[in-house]
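Q: Two folds, back to back.
A: First:
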Amino acid sequence: MIAVSEVPLDQQAPPALAAHWALRSKRPGVLMSYEILAGDGDERLAEELIRAGVVGNPEPAEPGRPDEYPWLAFVPGRAGAVLACVQTTWTEQVDGTGQPIAPARVVYLPYADALAAPPTCRSFAAAFLRAPWPGVDSPPAGLTADHRLPLALPALDVRGLAEVVQRRGFQWAATAAAVLVDGGSVAVVADAARFPGLEDRLDALDAVLALLPYWYRAELAVATWTSPRARHGIRLGFTTRAGAGQTEMRWDVPAPAHQLATEDGRQYLKELFVAVNDETVGLTGLIGHLAGRCRRAPRDVPVQALEELREVRFAELVRSEIRQDKGDPQRVGQVLARGWDLLDGEKQRIFTGWLADCAGRSGDPGRRAIEVLRRFWHDDMSEILFERVREDLAARDARSARGCLSRVAAAAPAGSGTADRLFQRLLHTDRTPPDMVVELLLDPPAGVDVRSSAVAAGVLRHDVLIRNLVGHLLRTDADRAIGWIRQLDAAVDGRVPAWFRPFLSVAEGDPGRSDPRDYADLAQRWKDVGSTLFELALRRDVPAIMVSESLWPALIQHVKGCLSAKREVVLPHFPVSRNGDAARADLAHLAASHRMPYLAGYPSEIPMTYLTALAAGWNGTEFDESVRTVWAHDLVRDIPAGSDGWRWRNLCAIGDALADGTPGNRTVTALITAQLIPEVQRARPRLLSLSEDWDQRIRESGQLTYYGPLLDVSVLSRKPAAIEEIAHAIREAGGHGAQADELVPMIATWVGKRNERGHVPGRAWRLIVEIGLTDRALSPLAVDLARAVRGGMAGPELTHDLDSALHKAVAVGGAAHYLLTAPVPAGAVNPAAPDRPGSPGPGTSQQYGPHPPRAKGRRMARLRGYFGIGRP
């Protein structure tokens, strides 16, 4: 017995179908004939259907009478192109003559559309009667935008039809079906008192039609009522009296007598009983088989009906042989020779799948199976085998899938490209396991061109396929991975998705094939792709490509992934030719091994292109704040000295590039400031040409107490400030550790700037006296400044000017005599670095403490005169 689950027509209900409709009626109170008042389709067809479906003149009818309303008729068009339901009703509204109006309404579906949810008489009537018709002359409510009527038709229920046949009686329904095949018409007659109601009539119609191929519904008209007085073309209907030429079948007689005129009719009835009693078929199997016969008869109707009925047993017998492992390709070929469309969907799948399996065998059975497939190939077979391939791949059986596709290529018409199309469809379905598709790509089925543009486009449609393809090849044959990447690009003429371009950059060794946005797109799709690209670059022997702007994020992702997994990170030497690449390589090495070899190896000034790339990478999204804070120490440690042996320029350059105030960069700034302090100490008495920002940071560090006051003197000397202001600043600087040889150049600057406004002889002497005048004599700082100027430290002009002023002062008061007679120090400055921060600088003789108390009032005036100067 065929199980209900095997019947393909038991399936979920489809969405509502859009039906055509028409209304033939009269307008209330209007003197007129019946005519088509509304409709959306072919008016002539609608009129034809209504004339075929209205059997008799409507008259008042009491409920319970055989002719009670509504009358329902199911009629095809003359060409059999539609399935239609015609409803005739009685109303109390009257026309212009006072006669009641009996409207006729028709709803019809093109036969091809109806097969989406093949209707029965009961389901068609139920959907029709649910539609609201507001009035006798009004169209139905709820029409679609194109004025069609939605019909919600359930899927054809084979089990339900079998129950309907059993309730009515198989022999009764089979006899009526045989009469119809015989070419006759059936009049179902019952006593008026026991006449069946509308639902029973509909079930009886369906019981008879269920024992005919489904396409019969498009060949004959059936009705729930036919007037015994009317001439009509209804082949199966209910009435109170059979007409001439009709076969009368009593409602209450289970085994009605019959006289079948043709051998086709007699054989049809016989075959129905044989099939229903065959344990391999049964009633449900029989109805399911006939319900699947939807293709309308192209030739003699009775002959085709009989052949299709007989097919259920022969096809079932061959299927049984296959189940018992006794299948024969020739026997299957005989089934297919009777017609592909004579088989239901289940048998089509079984026979096609079995032939494909058999074709994979060696020897004569395999050869004969291929011959049968070639001879009876149908496009539906490719769809069946596609599902078979997909099932094989879902079961992770690439070998079976490969064999099935190879047999499709062998069996399908030559040049059809069927196997190619099926393989391409595998690439466009999300339900295909990607690693299984990769196995087919790398070991393709016979007859499938995996290097075609269509296959390439399908592979590139899913990044997961690339991930599996490249990953598999890196484990087995890395050279093929590079070849596949190039081949995919060539197959689609370079029209690859953006996320694929980083692979092309590596495969071609050309960073210009992609940009950082492409990698960002790829990284969103493929979490650890950085390691894959890095490995490809090593296999391709183009490691430097990984420090290009477009691929450097992938390199950092690789390094971070290794560190996160606690794996050793081994980076190669990157043979870079551009400073920007060197900076990115350094950052990768910094992350991997806490060193920056390219930065440490610069022989002189660091190029601006390096600094720009360093800042972009360091401040990019690849490094978070916590990482920058930790790695800042390694970064600053590797900043090199210039060709002159000094680091301060490179320290400042790196610091300026990274000084954006973020936490990690604040650490860099602090570390560089600490590195600059010994450079500043080493340079004494010379001031380094630091920016105001770095000067301020050193001052704020508090490690060089003299540096801030000395900077103040430097600023005032360039203004130039008033003599009292700069003298005060010099005293402060001396008191905090600044030395004479550091201050003298600033005095020279101040004198020069002041003299630009008007030369005043002895200005240097005036400043020295202002700096060092105490209540007794000049302070040690002033004495050392005078001696340093006399020694030529401020230049010959200032030396001469000071000597002249001293001679005048001696002539006046003699107080400066010891400055003229004391030995003059050498003017050269020793460049050696001081021993410790805060110690006296080179060329100095002592550390100056707080300035002695200054004289006041008259005492100050007398001392000024004593030193040969008036008020400043």
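A: Second:
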Amino acid sequence: MHNFGSNMQANRLVMLSTLAVLIGGGTIACSKIENTQALVSQAKQFQKNGDNQAAIIQLKNALQKTPDDAEARYLLGMTYQETGDPASAEKELRKALALGMSHDKVTPGLGKALLMQGQFQNVLDETGQATTKGPASPEILGLRGNAYLALGKHQDAKLSFEQALQARADFADALLGMARLAIADKDIEAAMRFTDLAVDKNPKNIDARLFKGDLLRAQGKIEPALDAYGETLKIMPENTPARLSRASVELAAGKFDAARADIEAARSKAPKNLMVDYLQALLDFRQGKHAAARDSLQQILRVAPNHMPSVLLAGAVQFSLGSLQQAEQHLKNYLGKDPNNLYARKLLATTQLRQGQPDDAARTLVPLDPEHSNDAGVHVIAAEIALAKKQFAQASEHFEKAAQINPSSAAIRTELGLSRIVQGDKRALADLQIASGLEGESGRADILIVLSQIKNQQYDAALTSIAVLEKKMPQSPLPWNYRGAAYLGKKDIAKARDSLEHALKLDPKFFPAAANLAQLDLKDGQATNARKRFEDILKAEPKHLLAMLAMADLSLRQKDEKAYTSWLEKAASANPQAIQPHLLLAHYLLAKGENAKAVLAAREAVNAQPKNPAALDLLGTSQFASKDLGNALDTYRKLADQLPNQAEPRLKLAQVQIAMKQTGDARKTLQEALGMKPDLIEAQLMLGGLEIQSARYDEAQKIAKQIQQQKPASPAGLVLEGDTALARKQYPAALAAFERAHKLSPSPATLIRLHQALAGAGRFEEGEKQLATWLASHPQDGGTRLYLAERLITRGAFKAASEHYLLLNQQNPGNLVVLNNLAWALSELKDSRALSFADQALKLQPNNPTILDTYGWLLTQSGQPAKGLDPLRRAVSQAPDVAEIRWHLAATLAKSGDTAHARQELERLLASGVAFPHEKEAQNMLKQLQGGK
């Protein structure tokens, strides 16, 4: 019989929670308590009146008098959250937990604070235990749904939101979550429906109104977005997120005075909010005040070096100031976090060109696939790189493509003409004449006017401007496509369709019009018509990449996965240099668990573009998932070579090297990563663990101390120090490190390590007492209870272990580990309930060898060896090399009277040389059976 997980301590996932700190023995004067209570009451009244800043002041005053007041800490944390300061909110809410406040009460607020900071996995970790004790609250389900959504796990997100809405149909967080899912599916209409429902059902819900403003803003509906933020501020005038969102929209609309007023108002309420300084810097940048913008950004990056919007803006500001090296550094840092940002990548390539680094600029541009890009700016930069390398023919090709994409640009035409003059191309004069004419009446200016008017919902004005544009571009489908967009804005679907159809008459291969019409068809439930749009383009141009990808997308929408993969394969075959079809196919196959096929698809992407980082990364991931470690190693080496200044690819390379037991190489790779990014904690912890495995304890200790110096507020360095001492069997030192880590950030993980250190020192009962004390104040912490029960069962304390397992079974019925171990513990106590719990486990997993072994052996012990034979034989067939199971089968055969087969089983078992706990008993039984021959 086996104790599930008893020998897998290092791999056990334990849900994180916090430990209530024992309050010291000093007494507090009654007057002090009364003063604190009065201040807290005043703070609550201020909150009720909407004056959160006054509430914060009173709560801080209360905590100066009574720092250990959990209620005041909780209220302060929740107030910080309402004012848009999630970091301070998290700090205070964790203190409230440490002071003994109920996990159920604090977790929703703490989860929201973590969500606001982008700590999505931490949200799932913190709320995990709430899902193990029965139906979770709508608040918890909403938090988990939003975290799953941010992590790209859309199905998990949808399930969480739907469960929340089943419990509470008008729950705003879940309705907004469904809106976000709709946005991810590009169904803006559904997103607006969910959003409007959230606002209608919860008219005073600030988050719902803020989200509505954000959604309207994303659609370019500037005035409605401003109105939505204004309504939010009517409800809560000091709401900083609403104030900053409105300022951001005002900035985009060029309403600089209004933006400045909102920024200053936000600063008065939340002077430490990074977004206040960021928007001030953006305002200065937009108004050409580059030095002022630089100064603001420097202040932000001193305290928040990883605030990526500020990093990107700093790159743009330094570029404008001519500080090209600083601009390059900022832009590289930004792309390390967001490698797909088009603006950042183009600006970095331009910066490198300005510094005379055309090769670096070319490498920067590779992920944008210049040969097949539909972005005129990418082609212009690629052309300038070619000019710098004196590759004039290639430069002309890129300028020509840019002119085709943006035919109204005088600047592009001029550059094209110049590049052709260098080659002696007779078309140069024509290009320059076109450019000259365009500069007189720039079509580009007309396009920008039209786009601005459509964005601002000035649809009638846009139609007038489109008529002017059409005179300059009478044969282009572009004006008709814009006309269709304007009529869509006016809700005149019939005229919109007519305009888009006319665009396709002018150019049957004009994809934007076909895509817009297909979207209208899908909304009308006419999927067949939508499909025909793209089929018509493919008739005119059989290798049209975007049309093929659109056909694939339609197939996936209709859940025709076979057609989806078929279209991707066709697109890849027809466009051998395009990587999008291969990448989409590889991602799909990986998600389906078809790792070997994913490798083939990713390999095709690399063949198409051998140096593309995205393709290399996906190939390495697929190979690693397929356990093709040798090839994964080669691929990640190539990825690291393509990104020579980035640390993250080296983490993946080291992961493969560790899996291949190439300890020395892994160590070198991790050291390289840390040379690029000395405070990359993932690399530090990976290297520290590697040093412990290699018994290089002094090196591991150095890393632990380094982490402690770099991140004094993090327990990670102390935990690594404790792990190092534990591996050395220096239990007092390990205990001291774990105690400090636990004090810094109380959690079950550090508490369990404390127990391990105490157990190593022979102080088992002391460690178990600490765990029991924790569980007394955290009765729902299933992970810690399971760990304690396993320790007790290992020590033979079956009664105490069974009590914990019984409680775990009540809190989380149907857990396989709990049922199996509970059955074992009860059987040792001769408790008749043991067989019932083993039977429940077997029903959950009828073919699990461990469960079969437990069930069969319990039948034997209960005097039913004949019934025990079948499950034990099945267990042996599933796990033929597990000696303990074979021993149980042999003993059961003997008890059932089949001595011949029992003897054969024992002889085979003992001849194997595998040690097992009942080996001596098996030897004695064999002697008895042999004596009876």
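Q: And?
A: The CA atoms of residues 314 and 931 lie 88 Å apart.
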